[in-house]
Amino acid sequence: MAQSVPPGDIQTQPNAKIVFNAPYDDKHTYHIKVINSSARRVGYGIKTTNMKRLGVDPPCGVLDPKEAVLLAVSCDAFAFGQEDTNNDRITVEWTNTPDGAAKQFRREWFQGDGMVRRKNLPIEYNP
């Protein structure tokens, strides 16, 4: 049963944070890579602390062992210095997919009693 085994590791490139550079009068897009370095298929979902400013595409999906996906993290135009950006981050959540499940993302994988792991990537804004 997949739910009884904790999800393995994923890797992100960049590993620790996402950096956007000024000017902020136009939309910026930064690509990050998410790699399933575990031996099991995982479902992943991306959350953000500021849905008005930050978007991620695709926001969720399924990765086979050793498979990677490129995500586009976009930052919409905003008034730099006039808006609070201190808590901006995206969070990658992932969990093992049930044995025999189709390779299609399902939100309910995250709502049962299976273990969900999280990785926070803070967002830094350079002036």
UniProtKB/TrEMBL annotation:
Protein species of origin: Caenorhabditis remanei (Caenorhabditis vulgaris)
GO BP term (any one): positive regulation of smooth muscle contraction
GO CC list: cytoskeleton; pseudopodium
SUPFAM superfamilies to which the protein is assigned, alphabetical: PapD-like
Role summary: Central component in molecular interactions underlying sperm crawling. Forms an extensive filament system that extends from sperm villipoda, along the leading edge of the pseudopod.
Cell compartment(s), UniProt: Cell projection, Pseudopodium; Cytoplasm, Cytoskeleton
Keywords assigned by UniProt, alphabetized: Cell projection, Cytoplasm, Cytoskeleton
Main localization of the protein described in the UniProt heading: other
Superkingdom in the source lineage: Eukaryota
Name of the featured protein: Major sperm protein
Listed Pfam families: Motile_Sperm
InterPro entries recorded: Ig-like_fold, MSP_dom, Nematode_MSP, PapD-like_sf
